[in-house]
């Protein structure tokens, strides 16, 4: 599995993402420029320039018409992907840590950080597709503030029907809000309960590629958790030996990929092999670790899986994106239990 | 004065009889015992006529002031008179209760002169015990608590497969497991969170497990590791045991202070004589302290504490402590100084007990004698010395003189037949160092000493258990100290018989050398023959496994041939240990040392890696020690003869075990898969959105000129 190295960012990657078709990769980094790449050969299609600080997050709508970036320069920018021009800018009171389009493309959520004396929020904006996209409302439709019984929100995403927002908190809890009213529905302590780690902040949240009915969260507590969206029940827990920054669920195969590694400030004291800068593959159902992919020489900050399940891209603290396409053996790998199960299933039908 | 008027008005309204002052009375009542702690009663003073009383008082005041400050004037000392004479007793008031305590402790029984001995008591004690009726006159049998069985404390030895137990300490949790080789260790008890605040430790024969807490030490045992004893010792840090686990020694940086509250004091294990002591010897059978000691003054305030501070003879009969210029040898169980005298040894640096009974030439004792060795450094007009002393007679049975010595280390062979003293010597310029090995042969007549002079500095030395062979790690000291150059040598030595005329003697000859190593740690298998040599360092940890009695066609049995069986890299290694049966070697990376690759690895004695487990915040891997085998030589021979049969049995058990483990794993996976399918079934057909990508593949052909070459064709 020879990776394609996408070298274009000057600083640590913060998020990488495939569009729905999987032909483009969107990446943002601390160097304030977003990049769009062809996933087939790793060539850069173009950049989105205009932010003045670290871009924390990027997302695009289902047809890759629009793309939104959230930055530490206190703005969210909306871009027309085709031309790369910025069509709208929302001014926010504090740095934006996460943006996400609703699956029905009608709205955009933004997680703002709880710093500079501001309360952390999830703000939901309506997206107007009319005209040349420049006619957007400056004010959010709904603002969900940090609850008093909880710590600030670090990441958030939409359920498949765009009805609810699932948020991951700094205290390791995962909670569900109504996206129309902002009403709090329920919450579960997903991290910080599997071991004795002190830092338990949730670092990533990604939904099941098949139907979004379950999701995976990664956390600094060195674990990742698979959670049912409807009941918020913890289905599986994957344990690693370093703080995890990202987790993704693979289509086609029943795997999950975790990425992370020794904290950047501790890295210089350890050799590469000891920093745990590997993408880790776990079996989604059996929770066993299956394999690791080496290559980065800093912690992995973001992993995105190709929607067809043919590969994945990882963005690291080292400033590189590594794009992998799986070998044949990846698709052939099966546990005996799975093989017999499949044999039985095919025999009966 | 309007206020006063108002008050008067009020007074008229309220009748004083109706007001109860009980709350105020309770608040201001005077405790009749209050302040009596400062008073002592001194009895046994001379009876003097009134005229001489001022002189007597002056004398007594001077004496009483030596331990504290007596209150000035008549309030300080009151001497009742009767018939113009003093009555032989007096009341004394000190400024503080502590001073009064000190007076009782230090002055009671003090001889004033030939005829008069002072009896000093606290006035509260006199009230408590002196008043009739306070102390019952009839003997009341003390209540002995009913015997509580702790179950069979050695139950783990009855494991059918003879497996060894291990205690694993990771993050805040300690669990005890059975070693299952390749497979995950099987928990004996539920791993306990917050089990110890520092470390866990087994007693030397494995009977008890100990945990350290700020309040003291907790002892656990039995099949379920229930609590057996609590040893109260505030802020205890270091623990050690006598070899037969009869006694435990603990040290705390905080001196013992008696609680002020009498009720607490009754529960406190130490008496007033232990006040200020830091070192405690406990009787493990009763859980009571046997003796307490103050720290020797030269060790007070030292950061690095030499440990153990108390060293034991092989049978727990004697223990010894080293002080400046003397050795204090105590007899058990009384813990009184042997013959009530210290053993004076000027400048003593270190001593070691023989680890077994010594059978000296010409003596016929079954158990052997107690012998200890010690060394003293060079001083003006005096060479350095290593000596052997018999206890309890204190007879020095052998001494050797050494010069240009910078350090000595005494290595007893485990059967106490030989003592090797590693002498690090320096050249006259003190620039380079080299080592001599001095061997005392205790079982031979007059204890001959053989000297092995080396050019190298010996870094490490270890006897093979129950054998006369040993290995050393040494390096040539050339002054340069580049740590990246591998210049250490592992040398295997064996005795060789020599005949000089008619005299038979053995000399130690090296039979194998392995050069160019980084290694620094020697770990012999407890059963001998196999040895693991480790490199425990920051950058490149490594383990090497040797067979010191390798046999093949070229090297027949008994020919002393050492072979390197396997070399294993282990970057993070911080510690290593053999299991008590000599079958496995555990190596681990402890988060106490660093946070790299914390976890443990388990090797076979040949160096085959059986198991690797990376555990976050892994701290310690502790094999549970075993008591000495009950098999005698004949039994052992029988086992060895039938080894083939036994090994077949064990192979079968292993195979079954492996099968069971696989089956279990498959069953678990099947169950998980079923559960997952059941979970997914809920969403079947509910798929919200198909990934209806209409892909259109656009192929673009780009032509690029890579190279242009012009050739002239003629």
From TrEMBL, chain A:
Main localization category: cytoplasm
Location in or out of the cell: Cytoplasm
Keywords (A to Z) from UniProt: Cytoplasm, Initiation factor, Protein biosynthesis, Repeat, WD repeat
InterPro entries: eIF3i, WD40/YVTN_repeat-like_dom_sf, WD40_repeat_dom_sf, WD40_rpt
WD repeats: 6-47, 48-89, 293-323
GO biological process: formation of cytoplasmic translation initiation complex
Top-rank taxon: Eukaryota
Recorded GO MF terms: RNA binding; translation initiation factor activity
SMART domains the UniProt entry points to: WD40
CC annotations in GO: eukaryotic 43S preinitiation complex; eukaryotic 48S preinitiation complex; eukaryotic translation initiation factor 3 complex, eIF3m
Gene3D superfamilies reported in the protein's UniProt record: YVTN repeat-like/Quinoprotein amine dehydrogenase (2.130.10.10)
PANTHER family in UniProt: EUKARYOTIC TRANSLATION INITIATION FACTOR 3 SUBUNIT I
Subunit-level organization: Component of the eukaryotic translation initiation factor 3 (eIF-3) complex.
Family in the record: Belongs to the eIF-3 subunit I family.
HAMAP family: eIF3i
Functional description taken from the UniProt entry: Component of the eukaryotic translation initiation factor 3 (eIF-3) complex, which is involved in protein synthesis of a specialized repertoire of mRNAs and, together with other initiation factors, stimulates binding of mRNA and methionyl-tRNAi to the 40S ribosome. The eIF-3 complex specifically targets and initiates translation of a subset of mRNAs involved in cell proliferation.
Identification of the protein by name: Eukaryotic translation initiation factor 3 subunit I
Protein's organism: Pichia sorbitophila (strain ATCC MYA-4447 / BCRC 22081 / CBS 7064 / NBRC 10061 / NRRL Y-12695)
Lineage: Eukaryota, Fungi, Dikarya, Ascomycota, Saccharomycotina
TrEMBL record, chain B:
Keywords, alphabetical: Cytoplasm, Initiation factor, Protein biosynthesis, RNA-binding, WD repeat
Main location: cytoplasm
One Gene Ontology molecular-function label: translation initiation factor binding
Record's keyword annotation contains Membrane: no
Underlying gene: Piso0_004064
An annotated GO BP: formation of cytoplasmic translation initiation complex
Matches recorded under CDD domains: RRM_eIF3B (cd12278)
Cellular location(s): Cytoplasm
GO cellular component, one term: eukaryotic translation initiation factor 3 complex
Subunit structure: Component of the eukaryotic translation initiation factor 3 (eIF-3) complex.
Protein name: Eukaryotic translation initiation factor 3 subunit B
């Amino acid at each position: 599995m020879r990776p394609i190295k996408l070298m274009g960012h000057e600083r640590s990657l913060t998020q990488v993402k495939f569009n729905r078709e999987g032909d483009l990769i969107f990446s943002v980094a601390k160097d304030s420029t977003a990049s769009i790449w062809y996933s087939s050969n790793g060539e850069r299609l173009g950049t989105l320039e205009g932010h003045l600080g670290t871009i924390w997050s990027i997302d695009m709508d289902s047809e890759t018409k629009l793309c939104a970036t959230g930055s530490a320069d206190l703005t969210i920018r909306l871009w027309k992907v085709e031309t790369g021009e910025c069509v709208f800018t929302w001014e926010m009171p504090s740095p934006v840590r996460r943006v996400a389009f609703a699956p029905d493309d009608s709205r955009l959520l933004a997680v703002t950080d709880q710093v500079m004396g501001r309360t952390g929020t999830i703000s939901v904006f309506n997206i107007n597709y009319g005209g040349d996209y420049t006619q957007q409302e400056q004010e959010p439709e709904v603002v969900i503030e940090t609850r008093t019984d909880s710590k600030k929100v670090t990441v958030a995403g939409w359920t498949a029907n765009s009805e609810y927002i699932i948020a991951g908190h700094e205290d390791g809890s995962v909670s569900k809000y109504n996206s129309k009213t902002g009403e709090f529905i329920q919450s579960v302590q997903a991290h910080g309960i599997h071991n004795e780690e002190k830092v338990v902040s949730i670092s990533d949240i990604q939904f099941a590629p098949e139907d979004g009915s379950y999701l995976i969260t990664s956390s600094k507590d060195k674990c990742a958790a698979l959670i049912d969206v409807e009941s918020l029940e913890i289905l599986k827990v994957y344990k690693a030996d370093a703080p995890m920054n990202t987790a993704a669920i693979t289509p086609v195969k029943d795997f999950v990929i975790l990425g992370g590694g020794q904290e950047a400030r501790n890295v210089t004291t350890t050799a590469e092999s000891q920093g745990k800068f590997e993408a880790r593959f776990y079996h989604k159902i059996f929770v066993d670790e299956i394999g690791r992919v080496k290559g980065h020489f800093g912690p992995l900050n973001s992993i995105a899986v190709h929607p067809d399940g043919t590969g994945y891209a990882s963005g690291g603290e080292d400033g590189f994106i590594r794009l992998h396409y799986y070998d044949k053996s990846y698709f052939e790998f099966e546990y005996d239990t799975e093989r017999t199960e499949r044999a039985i299933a095919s025999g009966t039908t | 004065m309007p206020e006063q008027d108002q008050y008067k008005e009020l007074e008229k309204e309220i009748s004083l009889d109706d007001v109860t002052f009980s709350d105020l009375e309770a608040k201001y009542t005077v405790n009749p015992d209050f302040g009596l702690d400062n008073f002592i009663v001194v009895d046994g003073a001379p009876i003097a006529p009134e005229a001489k009383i001022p002189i007597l008082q002056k004398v007594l005041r001077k004496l009483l002031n030596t331990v504290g400050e007596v209150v000035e004037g008549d309030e300080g000392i009151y001497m009742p008179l009767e018939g113009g004479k003093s009555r032989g007793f007096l009341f004394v008031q000190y400024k503080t209760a502590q001073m009064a305590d000190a007076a009782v402790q230090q002055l009671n029984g003090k001889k004033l002169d030939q005829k008069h001995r002072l009896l000093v008591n606290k006035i509260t004690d006199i009230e408590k015990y002196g008043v009739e009726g306070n102390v019952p006159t009839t003997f009341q049998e003390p209540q002995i608590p009913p015997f509580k069985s702790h179950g069979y404390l050695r139950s783990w030895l009855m494991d059918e497969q003879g497996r060894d137990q291990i205690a694993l300490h990771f993050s805040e949790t300690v669990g005890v497991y059975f070693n299952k080789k390749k497979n995950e260790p099987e928990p004996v008890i539920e791993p306990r969170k917050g089990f110890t605040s520092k470390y866990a430790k087994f007693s030397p024969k494995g009977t008890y497990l100990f945990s350290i807490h700020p309040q003291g030490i907790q002892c656990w045992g039995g099949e379920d590791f229930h609590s057996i004893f609590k040893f109260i010792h505030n802020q205890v840090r270091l623990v050690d045991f006598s070899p037969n686990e009869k006694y435990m020694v603990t040290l705390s940086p905080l001196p013992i202070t008696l609680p002020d509250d009498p009720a607490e004091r009754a529960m406190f294990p130490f008496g007033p004589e232990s006040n200020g002591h830091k070192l405690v010897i406990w009787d493990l059978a009763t859980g009571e302290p046997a003796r307490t000691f103050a720290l020797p003054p030269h060790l007070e305030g030292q950061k690095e504490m030499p440990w153990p501070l108390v060293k034991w003879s092989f049978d727990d009969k004697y223990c010894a402590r080293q002080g400046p210029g003397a050795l204090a040898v105590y007899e058990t169980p009384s813990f009184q100084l042997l013959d009530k005298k210290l053993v004076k040894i000027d400048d003593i640096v270190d001593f070691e007990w023989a680890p077994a009974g010594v059978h000296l030439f010409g003596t016929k004792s079954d158990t052997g004698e107690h012998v200890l060795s010690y060394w003293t450094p060079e001083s003006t007009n005096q060479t350095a010395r290593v000596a052997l002393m018999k206890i309890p007679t204190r007879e020095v049975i052998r001494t050797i003189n050494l010069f240009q010595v910078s350090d000595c280390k005494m290595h007893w062979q485990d059967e106490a037949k030989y003592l090797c003293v590693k002498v690090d010597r320096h050249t006259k310029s003190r620039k380079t160092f080299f080592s001599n090995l001095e061997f005392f042969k205790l079982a031979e007549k007059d204890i001959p000493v053989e000297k092995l002079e080396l050019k190298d500095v010996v870094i490490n030395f270890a006897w093979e258990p129950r054998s006369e062979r040993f290995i050393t790690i040494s390096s040539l000291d050339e002054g340069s100290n580049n740590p990246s150059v591998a210049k250490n040598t592992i040398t295997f030595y064996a005795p060789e018989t020599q005949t000089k005329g008619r005299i038979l003697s053995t000399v130690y000859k090296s039979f194998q050398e392995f050069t160019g190593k980084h290694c620094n740690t020697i770990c012999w298998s407890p059963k001998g023959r196999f040895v693991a040599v480790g490199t425990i360092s920051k950058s490149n940890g490594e383990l090497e496994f040797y067979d010191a009695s390798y046999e093949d066609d070229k090297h027949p049995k008994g020919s002393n041939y050492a072979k390197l069986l396997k070399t294993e890299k282990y970057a993070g290694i911080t510690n290593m240990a053999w299991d008590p049966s000599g079958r496995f070697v555990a190596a681990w990376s402890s988060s106490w040392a660093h946070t790299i690759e914390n976890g443990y690895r388990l090797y076979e004695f040949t160096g085959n890696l059986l198991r690797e487990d990376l555990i976050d915040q892994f701290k310690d891997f502790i094999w549970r020690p075993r008591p000495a085998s009950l098999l005698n030589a004949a039994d052992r021979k029988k086992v060895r003869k039938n080894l083939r049969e036994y090994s077949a049995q064990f192979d079968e058990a292993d195979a079954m075990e492996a099968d069971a483990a696989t089956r279990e794993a498959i069953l678990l996976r099947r169950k998980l898969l079923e559960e997952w399918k059941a979970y997914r079934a809920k969403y079947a057909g509910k798929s919200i959105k198909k990934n209806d990508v209409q892909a259109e593949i656009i192929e673009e052909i780009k032509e690029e000129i890579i190279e242009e070459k012009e050739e002239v064709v003629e």
